[in-house]
Amino acid sequence: MQKRVLIITYYWPPSGGSGVQRWLKFCKYLQSYGWNPVIYTPENPDVSVTDKTLASDIPSDIKVIKREIFEPYSLFRFFARQKKGMGVGFASAEGKKNGLFGKLSLWVRANLFIPDARIFWVNPSVRFLANYLKNNPVDAVISTGPPHSMHLIALKLKQRMGIKWLADFRDPWTSIDYMADLPITKRSLQKHKRLENKVVTMADEVVVVSSQMQAEFEQVRPQGVSLITNGFDHTDFAEHQPPLDSEFTITHLGSIPANRNSEHLWDALSRMIASDALFASKLKIQLVGSVDKLVADQIKHYGLAGHCTFTGYVNHTKSIEIMQRSQVLLLLVNQSANAKGILTGKVFEYLAARRPILAIGPTDGDVSNLLKQTKAGVTANFCSFDDIYHKLKWMWGEYQNGFPFYDKVDVSEYSRKNLTGKLVDKLNHI
Questions:
Q1: Tell me, what's the pLDDT at 405?
Q2: Domain boundaries, given as residue ranges, for the chain
Q3: Which H or E element spans position 390?
Q4: CB-based burial of residue 206 (10 Å sphere; 0-12 exposed, 13-18 middle, 19+ buried)?
């Protein structure tokens, strides 16, 4: 007989982007391990992108409960004259673009909506789910954040009903990079930390996606913090590799905000073009996803505009095809205080695409350690022009030789199915 688990998540198809992938894929494989998921998610989330192709991964027989959510972002967009969802950008430097109103909205976001603007969904959700669970009991509850309001729903259910609870952190809470961009008061930051500590200590199991996050939370909870990284779904990737681009394509998939931009990279590519005619004839840069204006301006400044294409957001299926056809996959790690612990889901799909990876970030962080372990690529120091230049030259030489170093890469331990097995071990334990 299968056990039942209630999963509280803000992101669910047709929402697109990276936030939806982790739990969509867990749910795809949970039933094969004896757990039947029940999804609780907003009917009308404020998201910046949608991807209808992801719905094909939802098992046909799982229950999905959707309920209306009130979020103040619609009011802010009305006054800010924005059409798209605020998303994370509203919580970071992008909120500064609207002058005085932008500064006011950032202050409100930082100090009145704690932990985030989904806080208004917490109490209605607790009332609904408490009644639902009386008639439809489950063996455990999982909350995944951000947004961290999802954890507060599970926390209150735990307090009210004593239900077993696993809290999953896809990103840090108080140590996340955009906290530094918020005009947050000391009192508000203390409230964030109190809530974070309460969630971390009261959950029956805490799961994080990187070793740096694990070390951070273990300072609050010495035992019971488990590492289950993101991963890739083998069924998303064609059994036979599609034909590679004939050019020396360097492809970045995902957004590039200002703090992920690497001016040293554009400078290095520009100098290589000037010194090597063959390189200049072969270089193609593909940026797939939203790109900050600063990035586009620097690419133009360094004379790379003719080598660069800006694709914008594409659905998940198309993004994987682009990965598999590219010669080199570029991974830019945020230049922020928590950079060493950033290990996005994207890097695991890069691994599964079986193309060499050039990461630019901390050379002693989680991304660098992963690339060393898998032998799937190299990491260049974000702050070092010389390191970036030499790593690019090395990649160019390996491309000309057919990337012989890539023959022995094994990334099977990061398949979504195997990672679901690790999750089930934690569920069975609690």
A1: 75
A2: 3-231+416-429, 234-412
A3: helix 385-400
A4: buried
Residue keyed to tokens 């056809």: 325
The domain defined by 3-231+416-429 folds into Rossmann fold (3.40.50)
Q: Which two tokens stand for residue 359?
A: 């990461």
CA pair distance 290, 298, nearest whole angstrom: 15
Domain 3-231+416-429 matches domain 234-412 at the CATH topology level: yes
| Residues comprising the chain, all counted | 430
Q: At what angle do helices 316-325 and 345-353 cross, to 10 degrees?
A: 50
Spatial separation of the C-alpha atoms in residues 249 and 244, rounded to whole Å:
9
List the one residue out of 89, 65, 81 whose CA is nearest residue 8. 65
* Three-class DSSP category at 408: helix
What contacts 43, CB < 8 A, 6 or more positions away?
66, 67, 68, 69
Which DSSP string do the residues of 140-197 spell out, in sequence order?
EEEEEESSTHHHHHHHHHHHHH---EEEEESS-STTSGGGGGS---HHHHHHHHHHHH
Q: Where are the alpha helices (DSSP H) in 2-64?
A: 21-30
pLDDT by residue (tens digit) across 359-401?
999 999 999 999 999 999 999 999 999 999 999 999 999 999 9
How many other CB atoms are there within 10 angstroms of residue 402's CB atom?
9
Give the pair of three-digit tokens for residue 172. Answer: 């840090």
CATH number of 234-412: 3.40.50.2000
Q: What is the DSSP letter of 239?
A: S
Contacts of 413 (CB under 8 A, 6+ apart): none
pTM of the complete model beyond 0.90: no
Both tokens assigned to 393: 């030259």
Q: How far apart are CA 312 and CA 87, in angstroms?
A: 16
| 124 φ, ψ (degrees, to nearest 5) | -60, -35
pLDDT tens digits for 240-255? 788 999 999 999 999 9
Per DSSP, the three-state class of 53 is: helix
Closest among 150, 122, 116 to 22, alpha carbons compared: 150
